[in-house]
Amino acid sequence: MAGRKRKKLALAAAPEHDKQTGLKAAKLKEPIQSKNTPERSHYFMNTLQHRLGKDFFNQPCISLAKAFLGKVLVRRCEDGTELRGRIVETESYLGGEDKASHSAGGKRTERNTAMFMKPGTIYVYPIYGIYLCMNVSSEGEGAAVLLRSLEPLQGQPVMRQLRAARRKEGARPLKDKELCNGPSKLCQALNIPRCFDRRDLASDPEVWLEGDPDTSPAKPLDIVSAPRIGIESHGEWAKKPWRFYIHGHPCVSVVNKEAERQSLSGEAMDDLGPSDVQPDTGQHNVKRS
Question: Per the record, which residues fall in region Disordered (predicted)?
Answer without folding.
Answer: 1-23, 258-289
